[in-house]
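Let's sit down with a protein and look at its sequence and fold side by side. Once you have written the record down, we can walk along the chain together.
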Amino acid sequence: MKGKKTCQSCGQQTGPRAYICPNCNTPFVFKIKNNKGKKNRVVRDFDWHQLVRGDLIKVNGGPYFMNNDGEYVPMGYRGRFSVQGVDDKGILAWSTEKDGGYCHIYMGPTYHDKNTGLRKTPHTLLKIKKKEEV
């Protein structure tokens, strides 16, 4: 049946994204993914103060607003950016997205402004290196 997986042990059919058979707890066998064709490598642990003009980064998280009803409203940047410079509270960068622009990616200390409800938290960063640089 299309869109289903069949367990080799018990014959139970499950969804295509299942890792373990819900009937007999037998793990499904997956193909090993090969990283040979990838052109970029991701660096997770680095000091953002050491970024220089032209470095590529992937950004997530950052400041958010929490209203009185507990609704979470993200206010940070997301996506890929080209670094233009660094200051004491963050990174100045251009978005590499088609409709992106220039921004300041906040990396300062975490704090909560009780008057506005804004919670400033640093963004999460990944540095993207070209394969030939690695």
